[in-house]
Amino acid sequence: MINTNETSQGPRLSVSTWSLHRQLGGPDFYGPEDGKQIPVSTHGRGEFALLDLPARISQFGINTMELCHFHIPSLDKGYLNELRAAIDTANVELFSLLIDHGDITDPHYADRDLAWIGEWIEIAGMLGATCARAIAGKAAPSVEALEMSRSGLERLAERAEANGVRLMTENWFSILSTPENVLTLLDRLDGAVGFCLDFGNWTGETKYADLEAIASQADSCHTKAHFLAPGEMDKDDYIRCLDLTQDAGFAGPHTLIYDGPGDDEWEGLSIEREVVRSYL
Fold first, then answer.
1. Nearest of 247, 221, 250, 225 to residue 238 by alpha carbon
2. pTM > 0.90
3. 6 pLDDT above the threshold of 90
4. What is the rounded CA–CA span in Å between residue 105 and residue 44?
């Protein structure tokens, strides 16, 4: 049975800023080892600035977005207020802030990374995001690592709740590389943490069976297609993944993820959108 919580507003199209990484100029990735030292020299090189993106997404016909942490060029409170205003003015829902770094299962740096992720959760609250997605950990799967992940996610979920945000995690990195581990962790968290299903994170012969096993847990979906060449989608794979969510009764945002070949990200998103529309 699909999870129901405050993050559910019905099926809808969404887009991640990762899908427009090239349009934003490809700013560098960074994590907790850098603290709050944003690589500012890599920002401002794109076709448009992040402040312009909500309006462009709205013009594209999508009114929900997810924002990667490393796409934010400044953590100055004035800038964050300006970004929130741009999102509100465009009538776009900021569904989730994607915290794309940190390892809460690292034996040496878990406390540092938990603190860093917690600060980003507070930023998600400042921006008016419904959710913040954190990585469950990067350690190899083990009983000890899963318990460390559970404990860390519980701490982060409490911080998220205090900031009016719902914490989520994703089937990403080795600790959540199997449906068994995903289901075990979510069961131990007992609803405290939501779940984002990503089509593109798992591959191999058991991909569809594995995704099917966890699809019923999904509050949101990173609806990513595989592109064989610019403009050439593996449509059969995409439809098969979408059918899994439909069969599971998925009712959250389908966030289009495009990082395929070629520089026309809008074209790739348009191709994905045309397929996903019939599932809304």
1. 225
2. yes
3. no
4. 34
